């Protein structure tokens, strides 16, 4: 049903671990996004990549490190996270980042992250 | 910076009652989008409004974009249990850059 896949779907990690979240889109889109969704602050935009270049970084702590090796793949590398980083991490893609008559975003199913 | 406010945060209705959620932007928008997120799911695009005063309908859902392009509403007529979820509005500023999401309205429906 969805053209955007995310792995893993669930992740539990300690504060000293290093892990990576993966997102893949099969829609031929040029823009990809990472969002953080928690109970207190729904849908916080973290990073935007357009044509594999980072175009937006919304004051995200350096313990989150994105990587976009090509227009179909997006990673979020995690290290030394805090318990307050526990949330649902959603990846999305859209045809383009700027403008467009109908530039809807397609979301993946998300990774439910728990930091112990 | 640009802010998008959404009210109410939560709404509970009896099945068959109507429901409305409102979205207000601090700045003039180039367009506004609406998304629905079912419990345990991810946001799914519903519609985009572009023109001042635009009204669009999808079955029992009616979407409006204000004349000043700073507010929008989603109205559901005769709610059903399948309507439960969180409805987000998302506005794009005049520069056409990133989409700013509202905090969402969570709708619950009892039969």
Description:
- Chain A is an all-beta fold.
- Helices cover 0% and strands 55% of the residues of chain A.
- Chain A contains no helices and eleven strands.
- In chain A, strands 2, 4, 5, 6, 9, 10 and 11 form a seven-stranded mixed sheet that branches. Chain A has a four-stranded antiparallel sheet with strand order 1-3-8-7, with no helix packed on it.
- In chain A, strand 5 (44-50) and strand 6 form a beta hairpin.
- The model of chain A has no long low-confidence stretch (mean pLDDT 91).
- The mean pLDDT of chain B is 94.
- Chain B has strands at residues 4-7, 10-14, 19-25, 29-37, 44-49, 55-58, 61-65, 71-76, 85-93, 99-101, 105-110.
- Chain B is mainly beta.
- Chain B is globular.
- Chain B has no helices and eleven strands.
- In chain B, strands 2, 4, 5, 9, 10 and 11 form a six-stranded mixed sheet that branches.
- The interface between A and B is medium-sized, with 22 and 22 residues.
Could you provide a short overview of the structure?
The complex is a heterodimer of chains A (116) and B (111). Chain A has 116 residues and is an all-beta fold.
- Work out the radius of gyration of chain A: 13 Å
How many strands of chain B? 11
Order of helices and strands of chain B: EEEEEEEEEEE
**Secondary structure category of chain A:** mainly beta
Total number of helical segments of chain B?
0
Low-confidence stretches of chain B: none
Given helix and strand content, the structural type of chain B is mainly beta
Beta-strand percent range of chain A: over 45%
- Average pLDDT of chain B, to the nearest integer? 94
Terminus-to-terminus distance of chain B = 41 Å
Q: Largest sheet of chain A, described in full?
A: 7 strands, mixed
How many angstroms does the end-to-end distance of chain A come to?
32 Å
Q: Please bin the fraction of helical residues of chain A.
A: under 10%
Task: Give the topology, please.
The complex is a heterodimer of chains A (116) and B (111).
Chain A: E1 4-7, E2 10-13, E3 18-25, E4 31-37, E5 44-50, E6 53-57, E7 64-70, E8 73-79, E9 87-94, E10 106-107, E11 111-115
Parallel strand pairs in A: 2-11
Antiparallel strand pairs in A: 1-3, 3-8, 4-5, 4-9, 5-6, 7-8, 9-10, 9-11
Chain B: E1 4-7, E2 10-14, E3 19-25, E4 29-37, E5 44-49, E6 55-58, E7 61-65, E8 71-76, E9 85-93, E10 99-101, E11 105-110
Parallel strand pairs in B: 2-11
Antiparallel strand pairs in B: 1-3, 3-8, 4-5, 4-9, 6-7, 7-8, 9-10, 9-11
């Amino acid at each position: 049903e969805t053209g955007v896949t995310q792995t893993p779907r669930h992740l539990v990690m300690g504060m000293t671990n290093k892990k990576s979240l993966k997102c893949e889109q099969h829609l031929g889109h040029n823009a990809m996004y990472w969002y953080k969704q928690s109970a207190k602050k729904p849908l916080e935009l973290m990073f935007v990549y357009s044509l594999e270049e980072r175009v937006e970084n919304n004051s995200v702590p350096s313990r989150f490190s994105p990587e976009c090796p090509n227009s179909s793949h997006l990673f979020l590398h995690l290290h030394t996270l805090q318990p307050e980083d526990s949330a649902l991490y959603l990846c999305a893609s859209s045809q383009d980042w700027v403008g467009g008559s109908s530039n809807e975003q397609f979301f993946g199913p998300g990774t439910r992250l728990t930091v112990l | 910076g640009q802010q998008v406010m959404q009210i109410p945060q939560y709404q509970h209705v009896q099945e068959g009652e109507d429901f409305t959620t409102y979205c207000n932007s601090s700045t003039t928008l180039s367009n506004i989008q609406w998304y629905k997120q079912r419990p345990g799911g991810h946001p799914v695009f519903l519609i985009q409004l572009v023109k001042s005063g635009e009204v669009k309908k999808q079955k029992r859902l009616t979407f409006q974009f204000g004349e000043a392009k700073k507010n929008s509403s989603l109205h559901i007529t005769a709610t059903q249990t399948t309507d439960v979820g969180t409805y987000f509005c998302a506005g794009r500023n005049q520069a056409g850059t990133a989409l700013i999401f509202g905090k969402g309205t969570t709708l619950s429906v009892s039969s």
